[in-house]
């Protein structure tokens, strides 16, 4: 257990005390591990003491047992006991207790259950779970993660529904750490799409087989049954496959996933530039836009890098950036301070604040923090709209063409006209069918029909690539009537095996683990 209560110079001594309790996973076993998220909590608490010293005193306690907890599985098995042991043995009880949980798989559910019984606020910065939308069971949970299943799936489903695409071919590249994501994610999502009455195919490939390029025979199979390919795997494989529509779960490039640039300074740049003119990049709508705000966030990121090395012995690689998930944990405590001040200055509080009051002042509200803008819905879940972007051939960057409506995530708002290579979106199924022998092509030769019915991959493919971070228990259904009742997002897939650093592909070029929809 690590407790922090550093002295703070203040004009007036605040009588109201707040304790932040944070169950932590030591090391770098997951994206939410202490080496990544603790610097964010530390910095936030430092700023809260600086900015709110006249309103409250704050204490930060990490619950850590490095001899027992060495993995997410260990954290899940021990978090209940660790929390209970500390909670009932502490000698000082603050006016307000808040559980700030970065997240490690289903550990968050255990924490939330305990907090509900104790009537404490729970602020989740990394982990998210659909069960927390049940406000009867989890009335005190606020989910601020940068990665949420509902927004990701709504962006995918609404984009597919926009053009009536319902036949999907899943391709999962089994190589490397991204292969773990690919196998689990593709099979899970495919099963749910089938339940939603979509026609779904699934193939596993090994992109490391250079001598026998698996993509050649695979493309021949795909052309016979689908025009939309959902590709799951490492972005290096994705680039070999020349995928064209990319959904990035993060709003800015990070060391963990890289970016969607066509330029890799290799022999494929020219082909990639040509292919990416049909590329759509789907990424979260920027939460920080003004120049000074972006500069402020950059300073925060630099400070987090410094604290990670100085305080926790973790050194980011050159040009590595703490992820938006790290910033989300930082923002949760900043939001807490913003909500607390007016409540404490209201004389009716009488030195105590009910958790329900705190929750009411967070849900259905928007907060402009130095880490970005955070909006929450009525269930305490962060609202994350997405943008759809196309390549600007003059600048080489991507311009927004569609923006998800934050009030209705199943709809996109038009920012500017979408440009299609063929002048219009491809059909879900070719006019002559995948066989090339139905409809107007019924009496024509097979070769002519195939040319008429399918856009050849080398001439231009439209691909939808989606970074798969942590999806599980997705909705049964797709389109405007997509069901969100079974969505879940879990950090089971956030584990970085050997910190991801022993894998050659990961180390050579930090790129994205990706899932892609390829439209022929």
From TrEMBL:
GO terms for cellular component: membrane. Residues 38-393 form the Receptor ligand binding region domain. The chain crosses the membrane at residues 448-471. InterPro entries: ANF_lig-bd_rcpt, Peripla_BP_I. SUPFAM superfamilies: Periplasmic binding protein-like I. Keywords: Membrane, Transmembrane, Transmembrane helix. It is found in: Membrane. This is Receptor ligand binding region domain-containing protein.
């Amino acid at each position: 257990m690590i407790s922090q209560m550093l002295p703070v110079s203040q004009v007036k001594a605040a009588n109201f005390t707040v304790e932040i309790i944070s169950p932590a996973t030591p090391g770098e076993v997951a994206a939410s591990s202490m080496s990544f998220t603790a610097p964010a909590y530390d910095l936030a608490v430092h700023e809260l003491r600086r900015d709110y010293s006249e309103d409250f005193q704050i204490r930060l306690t990490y619950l850590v047992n490095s001899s027992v907890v060495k993995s997410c599985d260990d954290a899940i098995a021990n978090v209940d006991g660790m929390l209970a042991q500390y909670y009932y043995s502490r000698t000082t009880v603050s006016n307000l207790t808040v559980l700030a949980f970065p997240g490690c798989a289903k550990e968050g559910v255990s924490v939330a259950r305990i907090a509900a019984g104790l009537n404490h606020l729970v602020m989740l910065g990394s982990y998210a779970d659909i069960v927390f939308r049940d406000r009867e069971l989890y009335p005190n949970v606020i989910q601020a993660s940068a990665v949420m299943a509902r927004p990701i799936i709504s962006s995918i489903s609404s984009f597919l529904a926009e053009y009536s695409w319902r036949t999907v071919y899943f391709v999962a590249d089994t190589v490397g750490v991204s292969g773990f994501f690919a196998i689990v994610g593709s099979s899970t999502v495919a099963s749910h799409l089938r339940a939603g009455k979509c026609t779904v195919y699934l193939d596993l490939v090994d992109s490391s087989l250079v001598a026998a390029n698996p993509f050649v025979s695979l493309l021949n199979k795909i052309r016979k049954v689908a025009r939309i390919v959902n590709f799951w795997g490492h972005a290096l494989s994705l680039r070999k496959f020349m995928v064209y529509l990319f959904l990035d779960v993060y709003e800015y490039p990070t060391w963990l996933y890289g970016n969607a640039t066509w330029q890799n300074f290799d022999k494929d740049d020219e082909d990639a530039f040509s292919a990416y003119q049909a590329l759509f990049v789907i990424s979260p709508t920027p939460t920080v836009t003004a120049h000074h705000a972006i500069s402020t966030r950059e300073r925060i990121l630099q400070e987090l890098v410094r604290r990670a090395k100085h305080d926790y012995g973790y050194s980011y690689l050159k040009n590595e950036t703490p992820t938006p998930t790290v910033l989300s944990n930082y923002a949760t405590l900043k939001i807490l301070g913003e909500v607390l001040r007016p409540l404490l200055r209201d004389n009716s509080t009488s030195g105590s604040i009910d958790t329900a009051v705190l929750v009411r002042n967070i849900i259905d509200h928007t907060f402009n923090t130095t880490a970005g803008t955070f909006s929450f819905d009525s269930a305490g879940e962060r609202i994350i709209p997405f943008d759809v972007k196309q390549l600007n051939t003059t600048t080489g960057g991507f311009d927004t063409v569609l923006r998800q409506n934050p009030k209705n995530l199943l709809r996109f708002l038009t920012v500017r006209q979408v440009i299609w290579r063929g002048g219009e979106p491809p059909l879900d199924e070719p006019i002559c069918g995948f066989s090339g022998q139905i409809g107007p092509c019924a009496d024509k030769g097979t070769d002519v029909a195939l040319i008429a019915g399918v856009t050849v991959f080398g001439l231009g493919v439209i691909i939808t690539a989606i970074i798969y971070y942590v999806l599980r228990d997705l909705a049964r259904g797709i389109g405007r009537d997509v069901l969100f009742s079974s969505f879940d997002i879990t950090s089971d897939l956030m584990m970085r095996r050997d910190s991801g650093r022993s894998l050659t592909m990961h180390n050579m070029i930090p790129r994205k683990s990706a899932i892609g929809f390829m439209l022929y």
